């Protein structure tokens, strides 16, 4: 694609509107510094990528401070290469930017505009994760050599940055994308394989379980044949034994097991019922035999004895009470007497101490001896206890106690005998009721003992029959279960075969997936270096061109060769320009340190043009150089211009200069040499807020290509 | 230093220069540069851009002495055929060659080379001219730029170039093609690789 025209409004140095015809093999833009030359380049870059990296990649700086419309807009028309014309428009109103794209006559929806533009300009860029960023880098590295950044590639950029830039330009980013995509795919693949691996133990366990079950079933084969007749005879016998009637399925059907199970349950219930009856009959028989021993105690005699004893106790209690009253009176009198005697003793003691010839009280004479004896007798006299009363009470109390004990014993005997008689009556009633409950009829003239024996015999006989039927039922059910096992064994054999086949298939599938994964891993590892190898290979392809271009400018008398050195360090690609003196064979890896500023600029331009021409597929078939060389010697300048003259056959060339004389030289040197060729010259003069004055002209091709050679 | 020997003779240098220029689209003027120059020592060429005079001197001393005369002859030849209004009148190139060495006169040689007052000069002596390729390199500034050699080595899509890279030498080519195709089609890459492997 080549540039056809660009129209700017309110953009950078152009406050007003300006249109430029770029439909030429070479466009020379001449203007003093600040006249708007760079703004034209920026407008082209902004229209194509939506950003101008040297302005920070944001929109705000593109809006002119003197914009007459209040917004910045650029319309860029591209064409060539046999494709449809593209018209890209971008506008920024200070808040948001918008973009429109017309392909031929068809306007592309805004949402698709950017992707469609990249698709048309640089399809290989779509291999990059951020295609917009990639195309911006490609344009600023290989198409548009910016005035402010001429030497960035050889001075400011690191070896790794340079390598990466070249990598993006030649589309080696696609290899990285491929490697990343393959790595993602392999990771997903690994996860899926891991899931399959996790299924493996389950599948193995399933096979083991089936094998174990099969082994068990093999050991439980049917022992004897059960005929349909056996089955139906057993059912008939069960019905006779009291099992309820039902529809009887064929022995070989699966329902036979259910029916047999139901019949067995009913037989069990009947058996339990009979066993209970048998126990009850035995129990009643024992009760009956125990009931013949009747109580023998005479209740009337016992009652009379108790009455008699009660009366004796009452009388004895009264006697004892009277005796106790009498004893108490006697004790009271004895106490009075003893008190009197005590008083006499104390008086005698006092008197004996005061005995004299005469009475100390009445002063009469008395028989002293007799008195003393008398007093001493009083003092030494002792009090005898009243015994007769208390011993009578004791005897009476003892007699009463004996009577009360006898009464209590007789009363206990009476109560016990009464209870025994009551229990016996209750027992008789209970046994009568149990007989009635078991079906014994009193009026039938049957003897209870005979009836009990007869009933027990009958129950016992039925119980034996039921037990026999249940035993047969057990055998039938077991055989039926073995029949089911046999059927199940066939199913399990088939299932086991399937499970083993699935397990084997899973094993094989996992192994195959692992092989695929190993191949992918090998490819991923190889792709890690492949991208760098690709870049190195392409650098080797570009290097001769870079060398030829460098020699045409020939900025240094000794360092006349340039190399594009590339190498891998810790898995990362690096690239550095090298200068070589072929005579002395000296080499420098840092051109910026051995060259003057203008010489270094010349190296940078040479490498830029080598990349531009050698990289092959670029977003634009153009080389845009904004005031590329300043202060270069005339001879080198002429070398550069002669080089550019040859470049314009390969690329649309847009060169700007602030130097009018250089501009004239460019216009003359870059003139068209064939009919139909065009070189455009744009002069920017007298800048004002609305923009510079613009003079456009075309340099006409010479009429005769050869004049000296006739 | 590589100044001790000269591999090319004056005649060889002239023949090489003429061949290279004609091969680069130049035509040789039959009239030559003028009567004072023999065809063996001076020839005149023209292409749509420029007029080139190639002079091969047997010695450096002769070159040093006669280059102004050669320049005058070239200017005369140009002005004789091209009007002063034609931009081509400014497009003269003087190629001054000698198989002998400049020796201590390198500064003089450099000053001649840097003198752009009337025409641009390309100067080389035996120090630089040892092989035919050296003649071609000297004249390269006057020749079309061969970018196609570099470009033809660059495939349009790097992914197509993968099988030829040393890193992928041990990976089957069909496997590389499969994953590249799957990548372009945005299909599961390992699935395709796996299916292809199973078919083998």
**Which pair of protein chains has the largest interface, and what are the residue counts?**
A-B, 74 and 69 residues
As an assembly, this protein is heterodimer
Distance between the termini of chain A: 38 Å
Shape of chain B: elongated
**What is the C-alpha radius of gyration of chain A, as a whole number of Å?**
69 Å
Taking pLDDT < 50 over at least 5 consecutive residues as the criterion, the unreliable ranges of chain B are: 1-6
Poorly predicted regions of chain A: none
Q: In percent terms, what proportion of residues of chain B is strand?
A: 5-15%
Question: Tell me about the biggest sheet of chain A?
Answer: 6 strands, antiparallel
What does this protein structure show overall?
The complex is a heterodimer of chains A (710) and B (200). Chain A has helices at 37-49, 110-121, 131-143, 152-156, 159-169, 173-218, 228-240, 255-290, 299-353, 368-380, 388-437, 448-553, 591-594, 597-614, 634-647, 660-669, and strands at residues 2-11, 14-21, 26-31, 72-80, 83-92, 97-103, 106-108, 144-145, 561-569, 572-581, 586-588, 622-626, 652-657, 679-688, 691-699. Chain A has 710 residues and is an alpha/beta fold. In chain A, strand 14 and strand 15 (691-699) form a beta hairpin. Chain A starts with a strand and ends in an 11-residue tail after the last strand. The relative contact order of chain A is 0.14. Helices cover 41% and strands 12% of the residues of chain B. A 5-stranded mixed sheet of chain B has the order 1-2-3-4-5, sandwiched between helices. Chain B starts with 9 loop residues before the first helix and ends with a helix. At the A-B interface, helix 6, helix 12 and helix 15 of A face strand 1, strand 2, helix 2, helix 3 and helix 5 of B.
